Write the structure tokens for this entry.
Amino acid sequence: MANKNIYVTMPTLAPLGEVTENLQKVWESGIMTHNGPILQEFERKVAEWHGLKNHVVVVNGTIALQLAIKALELKGEIITSPFSFIATTSAIMYEGCTPVYSDIDPHTLNLDPAGLEEKITDKTVAIMPVHVFGNPCDIDAIDAIAKRHGLKVIYDACHAVGVTYRGKSVFAYGDISCTSYHATKMLNSGEGGGCYTNDDKLHEKMKRIRFFGFSDDKSDIVEEGSNYKMTEVHASVGLANLKYLQAALDDRKKKYMLYRNLLSDHPALTFQKINGDCNYSYFPVIFDTEKTLLKVEKALNAEHIFPRRYFYPSLNMFKDIVPYVSMPVSEGIAGRILCLPLYYDLAETDVARIAGIVIDTLK
Ligand code: T4K
């Protein structure tokens, strides 16, 4: 199988027959969208899986972040991580707020609470930390800072399906936690996202904004809303895949540990420090230099293996969208980090082969 392309990830998919069972109901009812029965079942079952009640499913994780900002009526500066996917920053900007970067911890790769307070100004309205690669942030420290300064917290939990912190789902923290059900995530509905909150009123408000801002009886427009609804077709995929979430999590952890055992002894490599629990959704490797990374990437590509430079460059380097402010830790990590392939259908023999290529290239 040496010539089969191996990508950084692939979706975990339920048997097609289980998706078509759900689709059969859609076809029979003719209800394709508008908060249909399958969407409601998906929304409820994913929330229950995480031990939570309030869950508003939307079309993708980026829109989930935008919905959270809109629902909290934020206008001003939002402190966020420069070590993330562009969606974290673009969601802030799309909602008319200003992203302000604060540097990351070099070990956990999450926002470093130690540097956060000095970024707070009289324009700061919120903090948007990211649980990078499913590794939970220092939630206690971040929430304490937010409380002290009267700031809202929206967690970008797009990588964090299935992750717990102090015995509860990470989605239980912050004013709102947003996740992604994109094809590349632990749980996928093709495209999809969700907002979690413990505040019932905020939950109802997000549901109204998702549906054009209609009042519950649809007689009036009571919010500045839009159309963020997920279709029944996507919900059918997500609902079928949910049955395989635990198997996917167990498998990911096993292969993550296999990589760690095979690579850990090498002096040129370091790894993300896991803060308690993690879903091991990615396998990031930090090299000693960018030159080493590029050499390893080239060697893997030659074998039809396509790891990804998540996240490169550090978001503060996109100078055309946000004025540049130096983030030395994030910039340093972004230049040296590579995510190796990790997904349900990846054979353990391929994990061993990939690790072998990495080690051989470092000789
Ligand atoms: N916040 C954070 C921290 C995020 O990482 C993301 C998204 C978001 C917010 C926003 O969530 P969404 O709005 O996307 O729901 C991917 C994903 O598109 C993106 O969801 C994800 N983060 C980001 C980290 O990765 P690309 O452009 O790097 O990946 P792409 O599409 O090239 O896919 C990677 C590999 O996955 C491919 O080489 C093959 C495989 N693949 C991909 C797709 C789309 C499949 O096998 N099937 C597929 O359908 O962005």
In short: The pocket of T4K is lined by residues 7-11, 60-62, 84-85, 87-88, 130, 156, 158-159, 180, 182-184, 193, 308, 310 (CB under 6 Å).
